[in-house]
Design a protein that fits this description.
The chain has helices spanning about 45-65, 70-95, 140-150, 155-160, 195-200, 205-210, 220-230; strands spanning about 1-10, 20-25, 30-40, 100-105, 105-110, 115-120, 125-130, 130-135, 180-185, 190-195, 235-240. The chain is α+β, with helices and mostly antiparallel strands and about 240 residues long. The termini are close together.
Length: about 240
């Protein structure tokens, strides 16, 4: 498997509160990735996202192996995210400057032809196969709730004033509810993780268009460039894994 990754401050922010990491085992036959988008005043959002990535990455690095079963992988994602949540929540409780900090998370483990996803918040996972792009995750956000209840159309949701309000994040409570998805993947497919700095600036078809280029190594860079060309209103992070 190949990985293409990039994070960028964007055109409007003074700091980058996104964080990411990825790793591979067994000559790339096992690949994992995690992307987080921090929130909170001053540098607290950055601390939350870095902490989450460090905790989750550490757990995946230490425990994944070719012998990992489907139930083990899912439980490992769950417990690592819960550990990250507990650590961020504790840090915020103990330090007044960090009160209110939190972070989204989207993570994937690809092993034995299966991609295991876990997420909380509005950072997303996409799946590109046979020239078709599909969104794997469902945003945990106020706007998504309004969409599902029929109170908003897709067009109205794009520019809704509460677009950035999320309903789940690591660090804001002692408990975190994590969603899981599993997909069978084949050689040539691409899994893509990103923060909303990408999806708020370019639509799915642009992501799909960028994904069709043969130069996979520059995929993340091309997507970030497209987002910046369309305003770059937030930090932008992309991690793509090609099976």
């Amino acid at each position: 498997m190949l990985v293409s990754a990039k994070t960028d401050i964007g055109m409007k922010r003074s700091t980058n509160q996104d964080s990411y990491s990825y790793g591979q085992f067994e000559n790339g036959t096992i690949t994992w990735a995690v992307v987080c988008d921090g929130m909170g005043g001053m540098a607290a959002g950055n601390i939350a996202s870095i902490t989450a990535v460090e905790v989750i990455a550490g757990a995946l690095e230490q425990n994944l192996s070719p012998k990992s079963s489907p139930s083990f992988v899912k439980n490992l994602l769950k417990t690592s995210i819960e550990s990250a949540n507990a650590k961020i929540f504790s840090m915020a409780e103990e330090n007044e400057d960090m009160r209110g900090m939190g972070t989204t998370v989207v993570a994937v483990v690809v092993i034995k032809g299966v991609a295991y996803f876990a997420h909380a918040g509005d950072s997303r996972a996409y799946y590109y196969s046979n020239n078709q792009l599909s969104q794997v995750t469902t945003d945990h956000s106020v706007v998504q709730t309004l969409l599902e209840s029929g109170q908003l159309t897709q067009d109205e949701a794009k520019n809704h004033p509460n677009k950035n309000i999320i309903t789940r994040a690591l660090g804001v409570s002692s408990y975190i509810d994590v969603d899981f998805e599993t997909l069978d993947v084949s050689e040539g497919d691409t899994v893509l993780l990103c923060t909303d700095g990408l999806t708020n600036c370019i639509d799915d078809e642009l992501i799909k268009l960028a994904s069709t280029d043969n130069d996979f190594s520059s995929l993340a860079e091309r997507l970030v460039e497209l987002a910046n060309q369309n305003g770059g209103n937030d930090n932008i992070t992309v991690v793509a894994v090609k099976i």
